[in-house]
Design goal:
The chain is an alpha/beta fold. 58% of the residues are buried. The mean pLDDT is 94.
Length: 656
């Protein structure tokens, strides 16, 4: 009666039981990092005095900060490569591709566990892996210890029936699920797909769906490993990595959702949230200015071949800028060999580097007030780099046909009238993508007892902040420096764009931009609270606080600015963990309406922290209003130790 997710977790169980809400430790087979989060991961790994990694495989990818307009990004790359040489980690050079696509192509194995310092690590679930996005410190610890702690999720089963029609794709499947469940509908859950409709989806289709499961707030998403999985691995020259995996026929799910694939139509996520979904038909033929096809969600060989087939022999609309970012060098190489690259270029597409690029605001920002169609995973306000842009998330098919017409176009209903057919995409032959990877640097084979290579650290790399331990009998206090609304994203907390990405290893610099989209005065106010009688700041948030990216900078920067507590109606999973790792106390209002009564400047105190945090509920005193609030604690025993120690690194090093 077991689900596939619980089967894999059981095989990797180190401690604890598989009971929803319980605490376990699982063995981690693989890890991945990317350069935007990676510098902090490897600074933390060095701070732990760790030796060679304890995982079967760890890979450091360079895919975010590839725009080198100054020394900062290149210095970070050199730092990461030097740490990889010390700890037996593979280093993937810039230009090789996007971490999730590369991990899928080269290293993903059905039934393995993968922990990554990027929220879209669940892409690996398309191969039948338990692939989880996490904060950088969690990944550093997994590399050092070969395991990680996990709050056991429920399993939400999504039964797929039927098959997709032409012009409807995997992107439309996950947009449909997002509309049904919302951006917080997956919190505390693994999304497991099963049913007859699964066999109609390729591995890259499945990877698109599991990738955007991150937008549900889910711990991860997973598909079974079947003949389609075998065929994909054979195309990568890795057929020996395949094994069949599926849930038991009588598996029992905690919750269920049924999706009829044959009933779906082209969908779009409207500004400014991935769950703000409607049909392309209902949105209507709005004029567009930009189309971007790529990202870790939709940059596979099949995705780009579909776009090339639609564009072949035609021209991009004069008012549209079409940008293509392939997922990997292997995909781009194959497109060049089979002529599809020429079809894209001849149509008027701009081909940019195999990297994250515009998905994270690293170049290709649209013009003021533009409408941009993107095959990406997030459309948060300002994420494109243009604050007043209207970004819609769509499938590659919808993006490509719309690039031709100049308006948002439903290919399902309009293709015949436009004379545009979508021919079947021929599958690559076995071994088609297996070539020597010139972008991967293997760690040196050092003889026993040899000195480790030196770490190369440029002037832009600054130490990460550390919290202060709470002494016995002391409380945790702070002045409220921000009262925020629902669905605050990590992009809101710590913006990510071409201005700031080069400074991901420089927390003091980033601190000047914290919450700039919501309140540009926040850094100054936080510093004032830090130096004031309350000796710190408090943030009050609404529902789903901290959704989006796994970036722990959204916790480390507030820590640097003296934030002691974040009180919210609910938290996104990864951000809550990052706050605790950093030594910032996250608490949830027992009565959500209490959050709406707190004002900026109120002084809040958790008295006798050591005593109160041992209880399931604590009381926060509002010294300014003379009020008090019951708060759900939710800390595990280990998390309580982290908070009282001033963060996880302090606890590990015995510096509490």
């Amino acid at each position: 009666m077991s689900t596939l997710a619980y089967k894999i977790l059981q095989e990797h169980l180190v401690a604890g039981e598989l009971m929803p809400g319980g605490e376990t430790t699982i063995r981690i087979d693989q890890t991945l990092t990317q350069d935007s989060t990676g510098t902090m991961v490897y600074l933390q790994l060095e701070a732990m005095d760790a030796g060679p990694v304890k995982t079967e495989l760890s890979v450091a990818y360079i895919d975010h900060n590839t725009l080198q307009t100054g020394f900062e990004n290149a210095d970070d790359h050199a730092f990461i490569q030097s740490v990889c040489a010390r700890h037996n980690i593979l280093f993937s050079k810039p230009g090789g591709g996007i971490c999730h696509q590369l991990q899928l192509e080269n290293y993903g194995v059905p039934g393995k566990t993968l922990l990554g310092s990027d929220s879209h690590t669940p892409t690996g679930g398309g191969l039948g892996m338990i692939a989880i996005g996490a904060g950088g410190l969690d990944v550093a610890i997994a590399m050092a210890q070969g395991a990680c702690a996990l709050t056991v999720p429920k399993v939400l089963g999504v039964e797929l029936k039927g098959a997709l029609r032409p012009w409807v794709s995997a992107k439309d499947v996950i947009l449909h699920v997002l509309k049904a469940l919302t951006v917080k509908g997956g919190v505390g859950r693994i999304i497991e797909y099963y049913g007859d409709g699964v066999k109609a989806l390729s591995v890259t289709d499945r990877a698109t769906i599991t990738n955007m499961g991150a937008e549900l707030g889910a711990t991860t998403s997973i598909f079974p490993s079947d003949e389609n999985t075998k065929r994909y691995l054979e195309q990568q020259g890795r057929g020996d990595a395949w094994k069949p995996l599926a849930a038991d026929a009588d598996a029992v799910y905690d919750e269920e959702l049924t999706v009829d694939l044959s009933a779906l139509e082209p969908l779009a996520a409207k500004p400014h949230s991935p769950d703000n979904v409607d049909s392309v038909r209902a949105v209507g033929p709005i004029e567009i200015d930009q189309v971007c096809i790529g990202s870790c969600t939709n940059s596979s060989y099949a995705d780009l071949m579909k776009a090339a087939a639609i564009l072949k022999g035609r021209k991009v609309h004069p008012n549209v800028s079409l940008v293509i970012s392939p997922g990997s060098a292997a995909i781009l190489s194959e497109l060049a060999r089979n002529g599809a690259l020429a079809d894209l270029i001849d149509a008027g597409a701009r081909i940019i580097e195999n990297a994250c690029g515009p998905c994270i605001g690293m170049g290709q920002s649209p013009k003021s007030g533009a409408v941009s169609l993107r095959t990406f995973n997030r459309n948060f306000k300002g994420r494109s780099g243009t604050n007043d842009a209207e970004v819609y998330l769509v499938s590659p098919e919808t993006a490509a046909i719309s690039a031709l017409t100049g308006v948002l176009t439903d290919g399902l209903s309009a293709h015949a009238a436009l004379g545009i057919e979508l021919p079947p995409i021929p599958e690559p032959a076995p071994g088609a993508f297996r070539r020597e990877n010139a972008f991967v640097v293997l760690p040196p084979d050092l003889p026993a007892g040899a000195a480790l290579p030196d770490v190369v650290m440029g002037p832009n790399i600054k130490p990460f902040p550390r919290g202060t331990a709470v002494r016995e009998g002391d409380g945790i206090s702070g002045s409220v420096v921000l009262v925020a609304g629902d669905n605050i994203t990590t992009d809101d907390i710590m913006p990510s764009d071409s201005r700031l990405l080069p400074y991901r290893s420089n927390i003091p610099h980033l601190a000047e931009y914290c919450f700039e989209k919501i309140d540009a005065a926040f850094p100054a106010r936080a510093k004032e609270a830090q130096a004031g009688p309350a000796q710190g700041g408090v943030i009050v948030g609404g529902e789903n606080y901290g959704q989006g990216s796994s970036r722990e900078h959204a916790a480390l920067v507030p820590l640097y600015l003296g934030i002691r507590m974040v009180l919210a109606k609910s938290f996104a999973r990864i951000h809550r963990a990052n706050l605790i790792n950093s030594g910032i106390l996250p608490l949830v209002f027992a009565e959500p309406a209490d959050a709406d009564t707190i004002k900026e400047g109120d002084v809040l105190v958790l008295e006798l922290a050591h005593t109160q945090l041992a209880e399931p509920q604590v009381v926060i005193q509002n010294k300014t209003q003379g009020a008090q609030y019951r708060m759900a604690n939710g800390l595990t025993g280990e998390e309580r130790k982290m908070i009282l120690a001033g963060g996880r690194i302090n606890l590990i090093r015995g510096e509490a």
